[in-house]
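Per your request, structure below.
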């Protein structure tokens, strides 16, 4: 995916890795390891390779195909992992991915991606998974739930506006936003996949103050763009939340999903 810089991705990686459901992660790694250490995994919207790192140490033995349309992020991924000879970086827009991309793979992964795409995009991807006879591990898709331990009067309105913005077109048609995981589950089960799900929320505390600040600023910008909340109210909310980042905790809901046949 484009539109994300290395600094933001690195900042959220600690929270992402802590949030992933451990039981589901174990099921995924066991599934891949069942065919041996040379199994191939295709990671969509790979960025700098965070999903690969999240599945270490097992993942160091697999062959990875990292797919993203951002050449700079892939270059960073290559510098971090390419020397192993087990990592291939593929620059491509996800709309242009063909089923051949998944040939010989055991698993397709995607992290914090499917809440940004449309139902049509997911339907097309599921059809390719069926054709390639490959499993899917989709982690960290936002579910629309966000709250702080120190409530602010504008929290609910800003989060609601942000959730509306999450359904705008991110380059793949009208995005599913918080509806992504249930929509994906329905599509997969309609194609006879077995689907396992587990919550994987961010639990941000004062040690994540900088991530909280970046998240709040992004949420404020998105909420203001909807016009559902006045710019003055959004700015007041943002200022208050930024001031509290060193002392507050935040819960941001996500879901992990593993589908196999």
């Amino acid at each position: 995916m484009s539109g994300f810089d290395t600094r933001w991705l690195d900042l959220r990686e600690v929270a992402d890795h802590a949030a992933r459901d451990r039981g589901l992660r174990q099921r995924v790694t066991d599934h891949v390891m069942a065919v041996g250490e040379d199994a191939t995994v295709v990671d969509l919207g790979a960025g700098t390779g965070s999903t690969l790192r999240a599945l270490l140490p097992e993942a160091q033995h697999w062959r990875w195909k990292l797919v993203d349309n951002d050449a700079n992020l892939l270059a960073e991924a290559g510098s971090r992992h390419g020397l192993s000879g087990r990592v291939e970086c593929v620059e491509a827009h996800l709309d242009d991915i063909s089923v051949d991309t998944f040939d010989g793979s055991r698993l397709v992964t995607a992290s914090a991606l499917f809440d940004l795409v449309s139902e049509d995009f997911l339907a097309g991807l599921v059809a390719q998974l069926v054709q390639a006879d490959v499993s899917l591990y989709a982690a960290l898709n936002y579910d629309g739930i966000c709250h702080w331990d120190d409530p602010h009067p504008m929290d609910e309105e800003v989060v609601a506006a942000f959730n509306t913005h999450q359904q705008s077109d991110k380059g793949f048609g009208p995005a599913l936003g918080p509806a992504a995981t249930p929509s994906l589950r329905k599509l997969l089960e309609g194609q006879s996949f077995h689907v396992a799900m587990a919550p994987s929320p961010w639990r941000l505390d004062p040690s994540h103050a900088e991530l909280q600040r970046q998240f709040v600023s992004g949420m404020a910008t998105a909420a203001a763009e909807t016009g559902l909340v006045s710019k003055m109210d959004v700015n007041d909310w943002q200022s208050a939340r930024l001031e509290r980042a060193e002392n507050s905790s935040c819960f941001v809901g996500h879901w992990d999903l593993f589908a196999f046949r």
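The two ends are 27 Å apart (CA to CA).

Regards,
D.
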